[in-house]
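job 3f2a | input accepted
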Amino acid sequence: MQLTLWTYEGPPHVGAMRIATAMRDVHYVLHAPQGDTYADLLFTMIERLPKRPPVTYTTFQARDLGGDTAELFKDAARLAIERFQPAALLVGSSCTAELIQDDPGGLAQALNLPIPVVPLELPSYQRKENWGASETFYQLSRRLVKKPTPQPNKARPTCNLLGPSALGFRHRDDIKEISQLLDSLGIEVSVVAPLNACVADIEKLAQADFNVVLYPEVGMTTALWLAREFGQPFTKQVPLGFNATRDFVQEVCALAQVPVPSAEHLTANARWYAQSVDSTYLTGKRVYLFGDATHVVCAARIASQEMGFEVVGLGTYSREFAREVRECAKSYGLEALITDDYLAVEEQISQLQPELILGTQMERHIAKRQGIPCAVISAPVHVQDFPARYAPQMGFEGANVIFDTWVHPLMMGLEEHLLGMFRQDFEFHAGASPSHLGGGHSAAAEIPPQLTAKEASNQATWSVEAEKELGKIPFFVRGKARRNTEKYALDQGVSTITVDTLYDAKAHYSR
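job 3f2a | predicted structure (511 res):
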């Protein structure tokens, strides 16, 4: 087992909590030792929910292990139903309680409870959070969904939105945006699940004409089961970005058998802005992407096709979708990084030295340490990624939000460069923290991480004067200038890079 300071995903029972917390009348009885209640903080402090998750913990202690921990679980289940009166009950174990093998599912069934009970077998040492959320939604659907009944005289085609959950990245706003888009196409949204759904909603999932899979990491397993069991088709296109949203509209119109709107009705401000004169300086900027599979694949398309960026590296922590990410990377001539080790991600970023990072809150911390602009595109996220304002990622308005989110760090880089031109003024000084990189950044942050002994033997060192001169180069080309200068010094056998070396390299690569 690897010890780490940060992790992209929690254990699978946290994924189950995301489903229970997302729904309105489902309760989760979790067999767990005292101390495992830390997961509550993810929802109350990060997502800023007004109430704690609907989870009852058995919270057994060390002294209970010599007694009957199974009886503790049964008591907790009875009390949870009496107190919260849910319409369905999820039961399972945390990673620690899994080791004592009390079988919460069997214990709950033996109680003959008056509501549906869904036992969850989530292997904590083989799987992680997103898989746990997907499996919980799937098992809940298998237990509750009823066979469809004839619906005569239905006014409009209907669909379900599958996958949004608690702790999701902008799921609340994405649902609103896509629901409005579907309504404008003449398609009615029947059920959104699991977010804000109740047991009665899950029961009628099979009544819809088709399913829209907004977040495959959570909704795909259920969509596949509904397709096998009831013949419900589902969408393959995720509407992230202008081009993807346009393709999504064509796909849902085909499934619903409604006409596709004309091109002038399928537009977004981001498309015009990305083609405007003010944005041409962004062309060719080197970008690195990391996050869940869905957002990384979609973001790569946006970066390359809509923003004119060069994708220099990408990867995911979602091992269940590694194939899709590898295929995406291959289309850009890259090899995908599939890992849940943030240190491996940081090492690759150090090697590539991109000009923009699109990632999770983990990559945001990496970007601050390396002095590289960063925009968050995927969970895991921080409290600041649950804004009070309306800020979807999906649909045409989502394309506008994405454009602003990605471009602003680069625009602020230009602003910092202009401030640098006046650094001798009393209002500014070299140690001031750039606003787009957070506190604590200084000229020292431009120095790359420590190299290995072998790398250091082939690497020229920078003089203090050369480092200061490098700091005068505009932020958005500084990384390239550093790489070119170090390569030139290596080719010329220069051991110490001076100001003259910096300008010699510039002249060499300008020919």
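job 3f2a | The chain has 19 helices and 14 strands.
job 3f2a | closed
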